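I have a small job for you when you get a moment. Can you supply me with one protein entry, sequence and fold together? It will help me judge whether the discrete encoding reads sensibly. Write everything out right here, beneath this request:
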Amino acid sequence: MKIARYEHAGQERLGIVSGNGLVEIARHFPEAPRDMIALMESFDALRGDLTLCESRPPDVDLGAVTLLSPVKRPGKIMGIGLNYADHVAESGMEMPADQLWFSKAATAINGPFGTLHVPRVSDALDYEVELVIVIGRKCRYVSREDAKSVIFGYCVGNDATVRDWQFKTSQFVLGKSFDTTAPVGPWIVTADALDPAELEVSLKVNGELRQHSNTRHLIFDCASMIEHLSKAMTLEPGDLLFTGTPSGVGAVMKPPKWLREGDLVRAEIEGIGAIENRVTREP
């Protein structure tokens, strides 16, 4: 099942993707929550009704709506660094013995087709295609075996990064947290509909392939990430976990290939879909 948050006729809505359109949940099930996080929390009870939506004719075409970030305001956005061996190698780093986590500010969230800003204070804007885990249950100390039960679903993400700010200090948070640098979407594919173990991952800039890999090359898989992270913090519905990026980032090219105004960045993951973000200068 693919669940989208979108704007149509001036209103934010939730819908189930059906063919090339969307079935508006509230139209057919008025008692259903209108907020994505609340929908996650009620999903078990609503699953049967929502499944019926997949077979209904769409209420609106995808081309007639604006797709929004599936979660409007995540409680937490966490990202893991150096989680593909080829990216470790191109970065000139040692293979991590432990998981390297950082946070992105919730204000970095961006829609799947929103504009991506080159900030006023830097020209070193880079891209990172990533599979994004959407947490669906409040949890702590989750075992590897139970990890799948707390995942609501998956999105495509671009962990866009302002590199000079990332490496000014040993802490990555500021370079990872600029406004607009967490575009996600285009919708959530529920965990029961997707196996994250072997998915093609790619990113193009203006049609040029820059990144291409497969999630089978993750150093730490989704279950081990949740097991490890939940030892440190409570995970809650709507939290987003960026799972790492493969080789091909602009920073390692000679000279570096930073994103420029007018560029179109397309990040795509097999079984989920694609997001596209046009690069503009921050106003």
